[in-house]
């Protein structure tokens, strides 16, 4: 068993890219929180588009944005780090500028804006993970990735809170929020670029391969990790395919949309509860992620990453069964029960987020880290894109269809991770 990593705030900041990079992450997250939760509302109220047209444009923008990931992976494998992070922020500045320039009724321009925002949102996680993997190694890297996620969720939450207060100003307020978002992205890009971090192609830390090999179990882990040392200096080798892990990740990602889509849908349409419950669950989810992401990731660092990832699937499946039971309690008790079970779901989300990207960075041969992370983010982006459609399609067929299907799929994914 590995020794559990200790939480040292200054060390975490250094391992996450340094103080300037941490500020860049906070500013970027704050700006994202101001606009992203209300992008649909912007299209409907400011641009006077229909809700279905706005939703389709946003979905198409996200899906088409995934096409950029192979190029991002190759760019990272040439050694770029802070430049790619800054570029992912700058492309969103262009998206916001397009959004502000879109006249009312022009759905195609809105779709173009959503596309550039989607490209930036899809490229950022892989670029950020590669940057952290260059600065920090081993379990310190896992803690740094967790700390970055906590910081990002805090910024998103504060931004969304500010935007909610400002929404009373109507369309003018939404346009002002979009403008501030663009400025925040621009400032964050400048800060990220100023870090000037570049990695030598195919450079890698020593020790990760030995750490993961023989601990995470399974033929896939051992085969990929045992070849890590020989991968040094081989920048032209193919990225590991990891089909089982990538397929499982598509299902795991559904947990990220449960608090935002599934629970509000169930609470309002099936339990006829006040929307306040949905808001409370979302706030609680944000607070739990901010406060527990690092401690939980550090506490579980004594276990193999693959085992932790599989365990997160079990926790998520248990929470889905809990939601199924909660919805059978009726209107009076159903909403409080759903809120209580949502805490278990958030814990599962925290465990998943703390282990998934960390496992991928540990499995990736050094010369193809960027392409490996790009493949992983493709599976994440695909899961995030299809989960709203799947959830809204299953929900009308009753709680058993929704939560039973999610439970079965997630347990199968957990098994696939360990196979």
TrEMBL record:
Q: Where is the composition biased (Basic and acidic residues)?
A: 212-238
Locate the region Disordered: 204-238
Q: Which InterPro entries match?
A: MFS, MFS_trans_sf, MFS_Transporters
Q: Which Pfam families match?
A: MFS_1
Transmembrane regions: 21-43, 49-72, 84-101, 107-138, 150-170, 176-195, 244-267, 279-300, 307-326, 338-364, 376-394, 400-418
Where does this one sit in the cell?
A: Cell membrane
List the membrane topology term(s).
Answer: Multi-pass membrane protein
User: Keywords in UniProt for this one?
Assistant: Cell membrane, Membrane, Transmembrane, Transmembrane helix, Transport
**Name assigned to this protein:** MFS transporter
Q: Give the classification, highest ranks.
A: Bacteria, Bacillati, Actinomycetota, Actinomycetes, Kitasatosporales
């Amino acid at each position: 068993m590995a020794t559990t990593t200790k939480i040292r705030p200054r060390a975490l900041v250094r391992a996450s890219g340094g103080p300037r990079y941490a500020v860049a992450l906070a500013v970027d997250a704050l700006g994202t929180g101001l606009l992203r939760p209300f992008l649909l509302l912007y299209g409907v109220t400011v641009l006077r588009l229909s809700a279905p047209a706005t939703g389709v444009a946003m979905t198409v923008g996200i899906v088409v944005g995934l096409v950029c990931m192979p190029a991002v992976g190759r760019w990272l494998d040439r050694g770029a780090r802070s430049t790619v992070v800054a570029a992912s922020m700058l492309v969103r500045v262009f998206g916001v500028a397009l959004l502000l320039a879109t006249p009312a009724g022009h759905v195609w321009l809105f779709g173009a804006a959503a596309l550039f925002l989607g490209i930036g949102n899809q490229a950022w996680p892989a670029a950020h993970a590669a940057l952290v993997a260059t600065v920090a190694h081993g379990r310190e890297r896992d803690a740094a990735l967790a700390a970055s996620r906590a910081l990002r969720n805090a910024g998103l939450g504060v931004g969304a809170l500010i935007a909610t207060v400002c929404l009373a100003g109507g369309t003018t307020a939404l346009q002002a929020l979009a403008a501030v978002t663009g400025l925040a992205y621009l400032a964050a890009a400048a800060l990220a670029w100023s870090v000037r971090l570049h990695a030598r192609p195919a450079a890698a830390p020593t020790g990760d391969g030995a750490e993961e090999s023989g601990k995470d179990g399974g033929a896939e882990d051992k085969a990929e990790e045992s070849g890590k040392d020989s991968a040094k200096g081989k920048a032209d080798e193919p990225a590991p395919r990891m089909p089982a892990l990538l397929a499982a990740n598509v299902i795991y990602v559904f947990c990220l949309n449960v608090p935002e889509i599934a629970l509000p849908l169930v609470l309002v349409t099936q339990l006829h509860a006040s929307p306040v419950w949905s808001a409370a669950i979302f706030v609680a989810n944000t607070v739990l992620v901010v406060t527990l992401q690092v401690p939980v990731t550090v506490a579980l660092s004594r276990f193999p990453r693959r085992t932790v990832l599989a365990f997160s699937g079990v926790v998520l499946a248990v929470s889905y069964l809990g939601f199924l039971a909660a919805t059978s309690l009726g209107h009076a008790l159903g909403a409080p029960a759903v809120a209580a079970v949502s805490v278990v779901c958030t814990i599962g989300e925290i465990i998943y987020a703390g282990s998934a990207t960390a496992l991928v960075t540990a499995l990736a041969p050094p010369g193809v880290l960027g392409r490996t992370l790009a493949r992983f983010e493709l599976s994440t982006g695909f899961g995030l894109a299809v989960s709203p459609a799947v959830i809204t399609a299953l929900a009308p067929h009753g709680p058993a269809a929704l939560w039973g299907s999610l439970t079965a799929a997630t347990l199968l994914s957990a098994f696939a991770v360990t196979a």
